Amino acid sequence: MSNVIAVVNPKGGSGKTTTTLNVAAGLLRYSEITSSVLVIDMDPHGCSTSTLLGKVEGNAPSRSIFDVLRRAITPHDGITNTVFAENIDIIPSSPHLESMAKTQIFDRLKKVTEALASSYGWILIDTPPNLGVLTQNSLVAAGYVLVPSPINGLSVGTMRLLKDTLDAVQNSSNDLLQMLGILVTMKDARTKLNEKLVKEVTDIFGEDAIFKTHITTNTKLEEAPAEFQSIYSYDSSCVGATVYRDFLKKELLNRLGELEKKRTELIEARY
Ligand SMILES: Nc1ncnc2c1ncn2[C@@H]1O[C@H](COP(=O)(O)OP(=O)(O)O)[C@@H](O)[C@H]1O
Ligand SMILES: [Mg+2]
């Protein structure tokens, strides 16, 4: 079984961090089997880190994923408690991660998630806005990829680039990596998906590539991180909480179940 989800989109401002935090908190609240979630923040800018640790503008955390990746501390020693109402742990980011982005080391994070997988129900990896070494480490470590994308930022070019990267990772180092799907974010309730674009994206990623639940634009989703809260504890009945909850309960958990079966088949077919 894999319980590692990488949240990836090479474009900045696409809803990766918002989705990472609210899916992490949502899994704890709404999935029956999950009692513990770990977030690993692989983005040197550390937005997940500052929200989960309750820092407006802090110094770099004393222990970070950078220290774990360079093997100065063990994976377990990189873990820190968070201020969220939900019982989420984090391995914080550090600005020093930038220096790792210049290396050609792609499999370090995998060793970390392997060491921690049995301690957590789910591990979510928040990634930087590019497809460089830090994102590739995340893809090598993950079982599943979730791609948040605003409707106006959903471009065929970006999706092709992402598909090529996923293929390359599958072929070289992680043949069990599976695409969970594209989650439309920041959608105006009245905007319709462009049918031509939907067809082009499904040609690249397959029939059900785009989740049916769309995350609408909701200012509460912007306010919640400033209060160091998930959307469910910030305002459990707002539109943002409703759509993320629907996404989890109606689609994400089912899709994860289906892909887990496929993963088992792939593993059995090897023998
Ligand atoms: N559904 C939404 N409605 C309103 N604002 C959102 C929504 N999703 C994300 N945002 C805001 O958009 C900005 C970028 O989102 P973020 O999750 O940080 O993207 P990324 O991690 O991909 O850079 C943030 O200020 C965030 O609060
Ligand atoms: Mg981010």
Give the helix/strand layout.
Layout (H helix, E strand, L loop, with lengths): L3 E4 L8 H15 L6 E5 L5 H7 L11 H5 L10 E2 L6 E4 L5 H4 L7 H9 L5 E5 L6 H9 L2 E7 L5 H17 L5 E8 L9 H11 L13 H8 L4 H4 L4 H31 L2
Parallel strand pairs: 1-5, 1-6, 2-4, 2-5, 6-7
Antiparallel strand pairs: 3-4
Bound molecules: adenosine-5'-diphosphate and magnesium ion.
User: What is the CATH topology descriptor?
Assistant: Rossmann fold
Query: Rough shape?
Result: globular
What is the fourth-level CATH superfamily?
P-loop containing nucleotide triphosphate hydrolases
Computed structural class: alpha/beta
Uncertain runs are: none
Task: Characterize the biggest β-sheet.
Answer: 7 strands, mixed
List descriptors.
binds magnesium ion; 271 residues; binds adenosine-5'-diphosphate; Rossmann fold; alpha/beta; seven-stranded mixed beta sheet
Question: What would you say this structure looks like, in words?
Answer:
It is a single chain. The chain is α/β, with parallel strands linked by helices and 271 residues long. The chain has one domain (4-269): 3-Layer(aba) Sandwich (Rossmann fold), CATH 3.40.50. 44% of the residues lie in helices and 13% in strands. The protein contains 11 helices and 7 strands. It has helices at 16-30, 47-53, 65-69, 97-100, 108-116, 133-141, 156-172, 195-205, 219-226, 231-234, 239-269; strands at residues 4-7, 37-41, 80-81, 88-91, 122-126, 144-150, 178-185. It has a 7-stranded mixed sheet with strand order 3-4-2-5-1-6-7, sandwiched between helices. Strand 3 and strand 4 (88-91) form a beta hairpin. Helix 1 packs across helix 11, helix 5 runs parallel beside helix 6 (133-141) and helix 7 (156-172) runs parallel beside helix 8 (195-205). The mean pLDDT is 94.
